[in-house]
Amino acid sequence: MADYTLETEEGRREALRRMLTIREFDSTAGDYFADGEIPGFVHLYIGEEAVGVGACAALEPDDYIASTHRGHGHCIAKGLDPKLMMAELFGKQDGYCNGKGGSMHIADVDSGMLGANGIVGAGPPLATGAALSIDYDDREQVAVGFLGDGAVAQGQVHEAINLAATWDLPAVFVVENNRYGEGTPVEEQHNVDDLSDTAGAYDIPGVTVDGMDVTAVAEAIEEARKHARAGDGPTIVEAETYRYRGHYEGDEQPYRDEDEIEKWKEQDPIDRFSDLLIDRGELTEEELEELRTEIEAEIEEAIEYAQDAPLPDPSEAYEDMFAEMPPEIERFASQARADGGSLGGDRR
Amino acid sequence: MTAQAEIERAEETETMTVREAIRMALREELQRDEDVYLMGEDVGKFGGVLEVTGGLWEEFGDERVRDTPISEAGFIGAATGAAATGTRPVAELMFSDFMGVSMEQIMNQMAKMRYMFGGKTEMPVTVRTTEGGGMGAASQHSGTVHAWIAHFPGLKAVAPGTAAAAKGLTKAAVRSNDPVFVFENKMIYEQQGEVPTDEEFTVPLGEAAVEREGEDVTVVATQRLVGESLQTADSLADDVSVEVIDVRSLYPLDTETIADSVRKTGRLVVADESPLSYGVHAEIVSRVQEEAFFSLDAPIQRIGTPDTHMPFSPPLEQEVLPDGDDVREAIKLIT
Predict the structure, then answer these.
(1) Is B141 a catalytic residue?
(2) Measured between beta carbons, which residues in chain A are less than 8 angstroms from residue B85?
(3) A326/B114 CB distance under 8 A
(4) With left for phi above 0 and alpha for psi between -120 and 50, is residue B223 left, alpha or beta?
(5) Which residues are in coiled coils (chain A) (predicted)?
(6) Most distant CA pair in chain B: distance in Å?
(7) Contact A125/B109, CB-based, under 8 Å?
(8) Taking CB atoms and an 8 Å limit, are B81 and A107 in contact across chains?
């Protein structure tokens, strides 16, 4: 069974919890980035929570996902631990990638998470590859490749879907159409109205769903998963959603106005889902508030964990390159170990 | 160890071509490990455009020997994702010039995933590809690009110069849990040599081989230029004693074997078909200067492709293609 499914009351509550966790995680990450505590870039998933959570609610725990620039939401939806994620954002040794990946590359292959990705359109070929392993070994899994609307224009995405389609691999490609490819509106990047229309070129199913509705996303992915497991190949699921924040934190967004953002917020995926659960009598306003408080505390704890976690020893910079370390790297590693972890130092 | 010693240690050998040696390696690895499979353009029924995989599809079938669409980024990316999820793909890039088409998946995914994931995945993928001029195939089917891969952190690169090395390196690449590129020079597929038939024979990544011992000058060569350097060494034997080393592994690179040889001979010629600027030659020269500068009795000489593409017309191609005569001239210049 999946970790959570929208078919049970308990599962729906868990889905809501994960959506709230994503929102709280990302808004907190945005704050700490603005304060200069998180290095690099961060790309937030706020507004798109229904897509990642809806998709993962329809997956089994050992299914694979390959993610995008905006990967925090997929990680939480897949069940990764916010503490270890936050530690990774802070560049700490205890982060998921020992501080070598950061926001754009959080990964945990043991959890089926094949990495957020800093290259637009690079995840789908990896998902096709995971689907190839599944097919080759006759395993009962699927591999989901998430991609943004901008990535639909990338050549390697086409190649990946074509390969998965011609080999009938158990893959699903989820296009998160959040209306902007970096700073350019989707209409200026594609001629088709529905990005799922491209499915016709591969003779595979393509559907467009309301990406602000977690149930609609889950139903589409469940269908796509069944299709893939039946040996009938991949499906393209386009989820129409909206990116509340800029492409990256600090993006001044000269390309859109506030009215547009406010209009989309009327369709907020978390409000819609929590209202639905309240209307159905599965949740009370008080319980929702309690849930929010709990999650705020959990993310606060993640921040404390990340702040307190040790930075990596400089010698760790040379670890994890290869299964078998070559002498070319070993000489730097042994020098760094001999230096006792002093920062910087002689490169020779 | 010298290559001769490796061959002598082997209990049984057979004379075969480089092409047959690679095919033997692939067949043995397909038989040994069910996780291993081949994929690429026309590797199956067609047998590979340069006929390296001939007969394997008939023997192992569609699942183990897979024809892909013409989409290098797609199938090299798929091989990368597959390697990260529990299988061991061996992908063929028909001509190394096509590597550019798939370079994103190679440099940003295959090379970086293990590191960026904090070591929490393996990347047991092998990429075989053909290199080199000499067939009149013109610029887009004659490149020697191995310096790109040897230069790029996170990837390992090998380039056999003999049939035995071709078998042993291919098997080591398939067995490695790291991404390994095998660069096969297309002009040596017909070159014959003694090859150990032992199914456990491998050539460890990172070990060069002394193919011919000598006292006066060291020629460090790769691929086709190993054979040509050996012939040149034989032809000069009355005048000068030439030691010839097959580099075999470009990354990791066996600095010790090369530096030891230069300490003995005091002279070095580096012969590799890749373009001369910023490449394999420069790396070997740098390491020798770091390790054995005070043993050098003469300036180091480099033989390679001038910084041109490989032209089509035969006289033009012969003009830029490095060969044994260039090695001879370099040796004469410094001895």
Answers:
(1) yes
(2) 64, 109, 114, 129-130, 133-134, 143
(3) no
(4) left
(5) 278-308
(6) 57
(7) yes
(8) no
Q: Is the dihedral of CA A116, A121, A125, A131 positive or negative?
A: positive
Is a pLDDT exceeding 80 seen at residue B11?
no
The partner residue sitting opposite B78, judged by closest CB among A115, A128, A323, is: A128
CA distance A283 to A54: 19
- Among candidates A66, A101, A132 on the partner chain, residue whose Cβ is nearest the Cβ of B117: A101
Cα–chain center distance at A314: 29
Cβ contacts of A43 within 8 Å, gap of 6 or more: A69, A70, A103, A104, A247, A248, A249
Q: Which residues of B touch A126 (CB under 8 A)?
A: 77-78, 80-81, 84, 109
What is the DSSP track for B192-226?
Answer: EEEEE--TT----TT--EEEE--SSEEEEE-THHH
Q: Computed over its alpha carbons, how large is the radius of gyration of chain A?
A: 21
Considering only CB atoms, which chain B residues are within 8 Å of A100?
115-118
Closest CB from A64, A95, A156 relative to B77: A156
Q: For A93-138, what is each residue's pLDDT tens digit?
A: 999 999 999 999 999 999 999 999 999 999 999 999 999 999 999 9
pLDDT of res. A3: 83
| Type and span of the H or E element at B88 | strand B88-93
Kindly tell me if the per-residue pLDDT of A159 is higher than 50.
yes
Backbone angles phi, psi at A125, to 5 degrees: -60, -35
In a 3-state reduction of DSSP, which class is residue B247? coil
pTM value is: 0.95
Beta strands in B213-320 (DSSP E): 217-221, 242-246, 248-251, 268-275, 301-305
In terms of Cβ atoms closer than 10 Å to its own Cβ (0-12, 13-18, 19+), residue A164 is: buried
- 307-326 of A, contacting B, C-beta below 8 A: 319-324, 326
Is A306 within 8 Å of A39 (Cβ atoms)?
no
Joined tokens for residue A200:
């016709």
pLDDT, tens digit (0-9, with 9 covering 90-100), for B226-259: 999 999 999 999 999 999 999 999 999 999 999 9
- For residue B71, what is the nearest residue in chain A, using CA coordinates? A159
Q: What is the pLDDT of residues B182-231, one digit of tens each?
A: 999 999 999 999 999 999 999 999 999 999 999 999 999 999 999 999 99
> d(Cα B274, Cα B270) in Å, to the nearest integer?
11
B192 to chain A, closest Cα gap in Å: 31
Structure tokens that stand for A148 in this block: 């943004």
CA separation for the pair B190, B213 (Å, rounded): 25
Interaxial angle between packed helices A285-308 and A269-279, expressed in degrees from 0 to 180 and rounded to the nearest 10: 140
Whether residues A163 and B178 touch (CB distance < 8 A) is answered with: no
Helix A9-34 crosses helix A214-227 at what angle (to 10 degrees)?
110
How many residue contacts between A and B have a Cβ separation below 8 Å? 169
Whether the predicted pLDDT of A345 surpasses 60: no
Query: Is the predicted pLDDT of residue A344 greater than 80, yes or no?
Result: no
| Residue A182: predicted pLDDT | 93
Beta bridge partners of B40: B67, B92
Contact (CB<8Å) B108/A118: yes
For the ranges A1-15, A24-38, A213-227, B28-42, which has the lowest average pLDDT? A1-15
Decide if pLDDT at A347 tops 50. no
- DSSP state letter for B25: H
- E strand segments, A117-187: 143-148, 171-177, 180-181, 184-185
Q: What is the Cα A262 distance to its own chain's centre? A: 24
Contact yes or no for A184/A152 (Cβ under 8 A): no
User: Which residues partner with B212 through β-bridges?
Assistant: B244
